[in-house]
Amino acid sequence: MILIFLGPPGSGKGTQAQYLVNNSGYVHVSTGQLLRKEVLAGGPLADEIESKLNSGKLSISDEIIFQLIKNVISENVDSDLIFDGFPRTQNQALALENILEVGKHKIDLVVDFKVDLAQLLDRVSGRFNCKICGSVYHDVNKRPEVEGVCDSCGSNQFQRRSDDTVDVMKTRVEVYQNETVPVGEYYSQKGILKSVDASMDALKIREVIEEYLKQIGL
Ligand code: AMP
Asked: Please, are residues 195 and 213 in contact by the beta-carbon 8 Å criterion?
């Protein structure tokens, strides 16, 4: 099963993906998270990737992104996957189809998270995540159930992303509008795109997604 979560930064894709990981055994494939892991691992490309991540632009080469995606797919051949933050351009969408065809997979559903810019700036400026498992929290809207302890993995290590600032956020949203909105149109023409109003609370969004999954027999 292959799901894609499309939506601007801060639209709640990561939170919904985490729910499906915890409750239905999906593997969450976030290219942003994979890139941040590369930076933490400190390999030969770490410095280059870090400076590009902080720009908010899609300046990481497709070659690097495709390699990360191929690695995850080959390490999880029997798992259901949720792609979050990939594909972000039409070129990446076409490449994903080729990569999936090799393993005889297909995209089952694309969920488009729709939300307005003012709300995004507020969500992103309060956002932090678990350093160990990546679960996403918010200063006001979603604190851990036990203060200082990650709900998903029990870690007490949290961090904030260096690109979650208002200036970088504006660039990220602009890039999303120019590069990624056409990807949604592409999937809409293929008849596999469903939209969700991502300004609703997380529980409501979850119910809509669960309904979409039911509609395709999941
Ligand atoms: P995200 O965590 O999805 O918001 O991604 C953080 C940053 O990683 C983005 O602003 C981009 O610089 C980079 N990035 C993530 N996914 C991709 C992708 N599919 N293609 C190019 N750059 C990406």
From this structure: no
Q: What is the pLDDT of residues 79-95, one digit of tens each?
A: 999 999 999 999 999 99
* Residues near ligand 1 (Cβ within 6 A): 9, 30-32, 35, 52-53, 56-58, 60, 65, 85-86, 88, 92, 163, 172
pLDDT of residue 118: 72
Which residue type, as a one-letter code, is found at position 69? Answer: I
User: Is the pTM value of this prediction over 0.85?
Assistant: yes
| 187 in Cβ contact with 4 (< 8 Å) | yes
84: CB partners within 8 A, 6+ apart: 5, 13, 14, 17, 28, 29, 30, 31, 32
Which residues of the chain carry a pLDDT beneath 50?
A: none
Q: What are phi and psi of 120, to 5 degrees?
A: -65, -45
What are the angstrom distances between the C-alpha of 11 and each of 1, 83, 95?
Answer: 23, 14, 25
Give pLDDT, residue 159.
93
Residue nearest to atom 6 of ligand 1 (CA): 32
Residue identifier of the C-alpha nearest atom 14 of ligand 1: 32
Cα gap 122→118, rounded to integer Å: 7
Rg (CA), the chain: 16
